[in-house]
Amino acid sequence: MSARDNILARLRRSPAGAPAPLPDVGAWFAARRSDDREALIERFKTHIRAARAEVHDTDAATWPELLLNLAAAKGLRTLLVGKGTRHGAALADRAQDAVHIRSYQQPAANWCDELFDDIDAALTTARSAIADTGSLILWPNAQEPRLMSLVPPVHFVLLAARAIHADLHAAMTDENWAAGMPTNALVISGPSKTADIQQTLAYGAHGPREVIVLLCREGEAS
Amino acid sequence: MSETIHFRPTTGFAERARAAAGDPALRSGFRGAMDFLQAKRLAQFPDAGDLATLRDLGAAIRRHALENLPQLLEQLEAKLVANGVQVHWAETPTQANAIVLDIAHRIDAKRMVKGKSMVSEEVGLNHAMEAAGIEAMETDMGEYIVQLAGEGPSHIIMPAIHKTKQQIAELFAARLPGVEYTENVDELIRIGREVLRRKFAAADIGLSGVNFAAADTGTLCLVENEGNGRMCTTVPRVHIAITGIEKVIARLDHVPLLNTLLPRSATGQAVETYQNFISGPRKADELDGPDEVHLILLDNGRSQAHADLQLRATLQCIRCGACMNHCPVYARIGGHAYGTTYPGPIGAIISPHLLGIGATAALATASTLCGACNEVCPVRIPITEILIRLRNEAQARPAAVGSLRGAGEARSALVSAIFRAWAAVYSHPALYRLVTWAMSRGRGLTPRTQGAWTGIRTPLIPARKRLRDLLAERRRQ
């Protein structure tokens, strides 16, 4: 008998307990939602700002300029974009000498040192967001890999205001996550942080020190 | 390097508790931390009615999982395998470590980075890796600090809660080359970040725990604030997740509810910085993420708890640590005194299954049964009822010893003789009258020192007149 068989056999021998039906989790979330889109957007902004992220209102036409200005003001010299993305191209078109645009072209292992040491910031899109907790939802893929939202010290996130859900349960059900999950799905609520030293909150633990949301209030994000 | 605390004998609990309770620095550190965490949790649950509903839902999700555990584990395994994840099963810590070592040897691994995982502490993984010549580096800031100090975590959520920033400053200055003493917390974290950043890229294996494993999609959910968990599960070419068999739940869309309870109960945060959902290894066109993802499902006594309808509730735990944050005993002695991987109330009820009831008998007595742990448990584990059950099991008569490992081992001839005598006196009226008469008349002989009782209290001396005598006098008047 394998360990697997032994464990499962023991569990199957356990007596049945009191009935334990699956609870209606959706109803609890649904009862707390409202239909007011503007209120939803405001709630998202309030909550993610409380987690120390920056939020800037912008639109599909002007976000590249806003981002480049913010990058210049923060002294960011190298900015990473995904390969073959429209928003990456939009940014590269407008970039001037102050900010150098790099694209994530090859497997991370091939340029790990550079990725960890030489990239000041990255730009990714968010798939959607959550108002209740002020969170960004990212499904990294071949164009925008996982480490873009983790390794560079500053993370710019392009988010369409219409993609804000009330809560994570709404996001999962409206977007039908159960139909097929990506390799890695992420829910990010602000810059990385720790309170492991005497309960003192410090930002920029192992992930980004800053998360900057570019909230596109109309039309497409890119 | 790091000390795995479950190797300590659990028999010295009284001595360790006494030493900890007499250490003013430890006392004030824990008191401050517990007050802080209690206030933060309370602020996250302003509506008692809403909290009650949330706890009902959380408990229902976990109870459903435990009632359907073998089926859900098989479903989880099938989904994960279909997603390309390799699933391993371990009955014991030794088997779990052997699985990790097999993987490590196959890929010729030299270095491992670790995200926070209490199950890896439970199995003593760091020891097993070091014995095999593989560096196992903790990367959670708190875990890194206690590993650097050669200690174990004293709290399941905040491992270095027993350390002051001055102690950490001294530790960094003494142990890290080129680092000068600083009490600036931002600077200390920056130092840790720089040291550990080098380690992620150089590691062959990233090891993590699992907070919830969703059976319907085959998804491992990990929550954290620092980003080291994401590093460990993304940068090295192999990711090994290790968790207890009880962590499975039926549905991915139940994770949001449990994650509404977990961070609020644990640290009083509305949400963790990262909720990391992992469903498989890197796909062919993806540029990062591990080539291999492994999940190790550990039993280590959990199936014993599952087999008992009362003790099964122990496995509902989502490891938030709220019970320890609110425990008057934990707050006064801290986590190390327990001598087990999991301290506090949850440690007292889960450790007997991992280590045996006899070896952990003292822990069930380390409670005032005040019930604060029951009140704050986000999944409604009746902790004090289980503590009483375990006290009874530890002292069980040979004839009443059931299948629980170590039951009856804490039975002492003296204690059982005393209780047998007590039972005889209270069940025979004539004997009762005789004994109480002798005690009231012989009260002068009562010792003035009565062990621990008189350490902080006046001695117990029988009354001059029994209730029986007083009533007889009143009738005569």
Major beta sheet, strand line-up of chain A: 1-12-7-4-2-3
Proportion of residues in β-strands of chain A: 15-25%
Query: What's the total count of β strands of chain A?
Result: 12
Give the rounded overall mean pLDDT of chain B. 95
SS element count, helices of chain B = 23
Secondary-structure element series of chain A: HHHEHEHEHEEEEEHEEEE
Radius of gyration of chain B: 26 Å
| Coarse morphology of chain A | globular
Structural notes for this entry:
The complex is a heterodimer of chains A (222) and B (477). By secondary structure, chain A is α/β, with parallel strands linked by helices. Chain A contains seven helices and twelve strands. Chain A is globular, with a radius of gyration of 21 Å. Chain A starts with a helix and ends in a 6-residue tail after the last strand. In chain B, 50% of the residues lie in helices and 10% in strands. Chain B is built from 23 helices and ten strands. In chain B, the strands form two sheets. Chain B has a six-stranded parallel sheet with strand order 1-10-7-4-2-3, with helices on both faces. Chain B has a four-stranded mixed sheet with strand order 8-5-6-9. In chain B, strand 5 and strand 6 form a beta hairpin. The N terminus of chain B is likely disordered.
Question: Briefly, what is this?
Answer:
The complex is a heterodimer of chains A (222) and B (477). With 222 residues, chain A is an alpha/beta fold. Chain A has helices at 3-13, 25-30, 37-50, 63-73, 86-94, 112-117, 168-174, and strands at residues 54-58, 78-82, 100-104, 121-125, 128-130, 135-138, 154-160, 164-165, 184-188, 193-194, 202-203, 210-216.
